[in-house]
User: Fold RidA family protein from Henriciella algicola.
Amino acid sequence: MASGRRLISTGSPFEKAFGYSRAVVQGDWCFVAGVTGYDYAAMTMPQDAAAQADACFATISRVLEEAGFAIADIVRVQYTLTDRALVDEVAPVLGRHMGDIRPAATMVISGLISPEMKIEIEVTALRSEA
Assistant:
């Protein structure tokens, strides 16, 4: 595969405002920026953290597909939650999406840039040889 750099955008207004790409593909690697639970078409956010986590994975899946990767190519994930009390709520969602893949993972409790955001998920994928 060519080693050229390719930028992927979801069209989120945040990408231009904050000067970043949703994902950067470099060779066989895909680096996906932190994704929150927004539906970027409607600019709406689900209320509960589990629904936000599902929305994050929907965006991540679309971005990876556009970049030529599969969800199974994820080798690293970072979860950022705004409150440790949300861990039990989102754990089943994380397990459903990542349980078979089991990438190296980190979970951080921290504030996010908007109060309605409860979770942000960042992933790194390495294209499989198959």
